[in-house]
Structure of Dimethylallyltranstransferase:
Amino acid sequence: MTATVSILAEGQRRIDAPLRSALDRLDPATRHVCGYHLGFWDSDASPISGTGKGIRPALALLSAWAAGAGDEIGIPAAVACELIHNFSLLHDDVMDHDTERRHRTTAWAQFGVPAAILAGDALCSLASEVLAEAPSATKDWAVRCLTASTRRLIAGQAADLAFETQDQVSLAECLKMAADKTGALMACSASLGAVLADAPAELALGLAEFGEHLGLAFQLADDILGIWGNPERTGKPVLSDLRSRKKSVPVVYALASGTPAGDRLAVLYAQPDELNEAQLHEAAELVSEAGGKDWTEQRADEELEAALARIDSLLLPGPIAEDFTTLARQLSHRDR
Amino acid sequence: MTATVSILAEGQRRIDAPLRSALDRLDPATRHVCGYHLGFWDSDASPISGTGKGIRPALALLSAWAAGAGDEIGIPAAVACELIHNFSLLHDDVMDHDTERRHRTTAWAQFGVPAAILAGDALCSLASEVLAEAPSATKDWAVRCLTASTRRLIAGQAADLAFETQDQVSLAECLKMAADKTGALMACSASLGAVLADAPAELALGLAEFGEHLGLAFQLADDILGIWGNPERTGKPVLSDLRSRKKSVPVVYALASGTPAGDRLAVLYAQPDELNEAQLHEAAELVSEAGGKDWTEQRADEELEAALARIDSLLLPGPIAEDFTTLARQLSHRDR
C-alpha cells in the first residue's frame, strides 16, 4: 500500500512540470480551462494542488522502466496518456451533463460547453504532439498505439451513451463497453513506455494485456462503488449509478439474470419518474439478490488474477514487478 | 479555372478511398456520424455524393508533388489535413449552434451533441494515426506540424467565441483570429506533403508561408461573402454575418474606424433586439461607408499577391507552380 501510494505520487511528481509545460503551448483561454480541469489552479487562476490519481502516468513510467529505459522515454509516454485520459474526462462531462468531478465543478459547468470542448480538443492533440517529440526511434508506433486506444475510448463512450436509450443491453455488450472505455487506455498506459523504448514486442504486448485486465478489474470495482460505495470516500452521492439508472455491469447482470429480483429491477428501471430513496435502496437490494454484486466482484477478482499472472509471466526485475503488482492490487480493490 | 476545378476534383478523387478506409476503423455509430458529416452518406446511410470543396487535400497533394514525392506521401498528408478540417467543423457547429452546413443539417442537429463531439474527437485522433503510418522518415515532424496547427485552430475558435461577448475587438486581434482559424491549417496543408517527403526546410517553410497568406486571403474573401454574398451561391442567408452580429474583419474595421458610419454601426450592433431587414441593409451600408468593405478587399488582394510571390520565389516545376497559382486565385476570389 505504501509502495503504491509512493509510485502514484512519484508518477504525479515527475509529470507535473512536463504536463504544465505542454499546457503552456496553448492559447491563454484554453490553457486556463485545461489547467483548471487538471487541478493546477482554480477558476480565478489561484494555484491549488492537483487532484488526479495519476494511475496512467504511473503505469506508463513503470512500463518504460520495465523496458530498461529512463524518464526521457517514460515521461512523454506518461504525459501523453494523462492528456488523453483528461481529454476524455472533459468531453464525457459535457456529454453526460455531470456538474461535479473530484469534488469540484466540472469545466463545462464552470466555463461553458464551448470552452470545455476546446480544452478537450487541445489535450487530445497535445498528446500526439508530445509523443512525436520524444527522443525515440519508435515514436510513430507509440502514436499509433495511443490513437488506436483513443478510438476504443470513443467507441466505449458511444456505447455507453447508446445504452441509455437501448431497451436490452447484453452482459457481453456491457463488458465490451467497459473494456473499451477503461481497458483500452490502461492497456496503452501500461505498455506505451515500452513501445516508445523499442522494447521487444513480447514485452510490450504482455504489458498491454496486463493493462487490459487491470482496466477491466478497475472498472468493475468502480461499478461496485457506484452502487455500494461510501459517498464520503467516492465523492459521489450514495447509490449514484442507480439514481442515474446507469447500465453498469452489476445492473446489466441482474437485468439479464432471469431471476424474480432481476425482473422487479427491470420494472423499477422502466418507470418514468425519479426513483425515491426507498426505491433506490430496493434497487440496490435487487441487484444483489439477482447475483449482480457477487458476479461483478468475482469477475473483478478474475481480471486482477489474470493481470497479475501476466506480469509474473514477463519475468521483470523484482522491484518493477512488485510495483506493478502492488499498484494492480490497490486499483482493483480501491476504496475511493 | 478549369485547371483549378480539376485539381480540386482530382484531390477529392484521390483521397476518397483512403478517407473512407480511415473511417472504417471507427465503431459503427461514430463512423456513421463522421461519414454523414463528410457527405459520404445520408442519415439513413444511403450513399450521396460528397460536398466538401477539397481545398486542403489539393494543397497537400500539390505540396508532396512540389517536393518530388508521389501519392504514397501526398495522400496521407491530404487525408490528415481533411480530417483535422472536418474535426474542427464538427465541433464548431456544436459551439456555434449552427444547424446547417453545405445545405445539409449539421451532425449535432441530426444526431445530437454527444455524437457530434465524439465524431470530431475521432477525426482529430485519426489524423495523427494516418500520418504516423505514412511511409516516411519524417512522419514525426509531420505530426508536430499538424498538431501545432491544431493548437492555432483551437486558439482561433476560442478567440472567435470570446469576441461574441467582448465589447471592443481590435483589428489586430481580429486578423490574428482569422489567421489562426483559417491560415494555420492552410499553411499546414500547403506544406505537409513536403514535410512528409523530407523536403529541404526552405521549400517546406516557403510553402507554409504561401498557405498562410492564402488562408488569410481566403478568410477575408469569405468575410466579404458573409455580408454581400449571393445566398443562392453561398448557401447562407443574405447578410448572414450581420444577422448573427459576427465580428468579422469588415465589421471590426468599420467599428474601429472612428467614422460617423462606424459609430452608427456600433449603435445598431449594441441593440438587444434582432435586427430587422431594413436595419440589416443599413448595417451593410454602414460597413461599406466606414471603409470596411474596401479595406478588406484590398487586404485580401495583398495577401493573395504575397501568396503568389512566395510561390514564384520557390522556383517550382512549371505545372505545379501553375496549379498552386490557379488554385490560389480562385480561392481568394471565389464566388461561393
Notes: Chain B has a mean pLDDT of 94. Chain B is about 75% helix and 0% strand.
